[in-house]
């Protein structure tokens, strides 16, 4: 690693050896590597070696665009330059995204049905803004060499982009499309098939593993970075939704391709669904109401009749325009039909332990109508069979060992039997007990549902005053973050930013550049802030981040585990809280010289029966419940700061 301009780190060397052994032995490996370990280089070096030896690419999957960009723009170029002299050829790499992320040349010129969601949902100003974005995409389409949506800066809305992109289900295929030879998505896939390292995301990895047609090039080894996000990202991919919009889109796409009367039947079924969902209460639907069952069956059957009326799927292959319209129509009809079938099949099981999926209704907003969703209660079987069953998988993150073991996440990945995989913790380059204090405000009351108690606001104010600002406030809800901001802005002498005041990226930049500034926010800040140095000395966490009790999916998963004899609370709610708590605490130490305090205001972290499990998921900070100790430490750090 010295050749890359860095210093040797024992944890990094241990990880390199473990990854190499796992690849050679074709054994799955989970590696917990703390911030600052240099884990990306630790898995890239043996991955490149394997790609060279086997002439087969290694796929690296991430959860965030930021890490993809770090790998492609910084880590891989540095490695390629350094290792190229020692290897048969300079290592090559490419980024591969889902088809929807690339401009479709044919759709941009062929006048396909527009993807406009119902125009009445948008006011004239929004329609005008979308029109300007569409014009900008058209101008960019004439000059882009990659067709990658991320090239568009500033970005464009989903509504505008959909008019220039297709899903895998809608695509005609390179051999049948008039623009197939110039297809950006196909060109990206071809490049990915010729390189040593393919960088992608968890969603595309899931689609490739679980779909009928391969999306990624053939590969033997997968590295899943940010692996703590894998289950949630896979769940999102396999979650189905049904609303008046999805049905209306299918009706518009089928257009004049079939008899009007048959299309009208689907439209009427969509109207029935719209009226029913508008009157229904949001939340989990444990038992299928008769009227909902009849409506879903009507939607299913109407969509099936439309599919039959369309005729053979391969028809009109010599007419690309017609073939494109038919492919888009089949895609929309299949989604409506198959989702309705999934929802109906989610019911009728003899016992709760036999249930495989959960259905719930999301309340509508000003922009979106009420939507029915269906998701699997677990994706462990899918992952075990489709991802881990076909290749060697390396999973890594700074937070994988919950409660001190890998068992919780291994069970969610389908590796719960302990065979065929190994878990190791290579530690952290930080001296946590010397660099940080974990303070639990044991004297405060338990958090309630009525917002932040006055004692919490007083505690926050006193801690921030001791730190001289320099605080990241992580709250369990946006409501709590805003309430704290409003209550403390006039009380404190330091600038106080709140998520939502501006783009999160700009707020984090402002927070990092001005030492006294504080930043309050919610979920994305728990995992997305990297601010080394004196601008961040205090991380405040208002409460243990359990999922909301009324969250349909997590509550259903808890009940499912309990029905099978397990502890639903520990397996689902406590695991969720431990993972997020560890991610939040990980914001404090980002560089070797960083020091500070993690202040958890929720006394349950010190008093509840599950506190040992949660504490066992956190780095080994020096712990205290004495309010005087963190205040004194923060004052000392503030006095040392040049500002």
TrEMBL record:
Residues 1-270 form the Helicase ATP-binding domain. InterPro entries: ATP-dep_Helicase_C, DEAD/DEAH_box_helicase_dom, DinG/Rad3-like, Helic_SF1/SF2_ATP-bd_DinG/Rad3, Helicase_ATP-bd, P-loop_NTPase. PROSITE patterns: HELICASE_ATP_BIND_2. SMART domains: DEXDc (SM00487), HELICc2 (SM00491). GO terms for molecular function: 5'-3' DNA helicase activity; ATP binding; hydrolase activity, acting on acid anhydrides, in phosphorus-containing anhydrides; nucleic acid binding. SUPFAM superfamilies: P-loop containing nucleoside triphosphate hydrolases. Pfam families: DEAD, Helicase_C_2. Its EC number is 5.6.2.3. It comes from the Bacteria. Keywords: ATP-binding, Helicase, Hydrolase, Nucleotide-binding. The keyword ATP-binding applies. One of its GO terms (biological process) is nucleobase-containing compound metabolic process. Its cofactor is [4Fe-4S] cluster. It catalyses: ATP + H2O = ADP + phosphate + H(+). Belongs to the helicase family. DinG subfamily. PANTHER family: DNA REPAIR DEAD HELICASE RAD3/XP-D SUBFAMILY MEMBER (PTHR11472), REGULATOR OF TELOMERE ELONGATION HELICASE 1 (PTHR11472:SF34). This is ATP-dependent helicase DinG. It comes from Nonomuraea jabiensis. The lineage of its organism: Bacteria, Bacillati, Actinomycetota, Actinomycetes, Streptosporangiales.
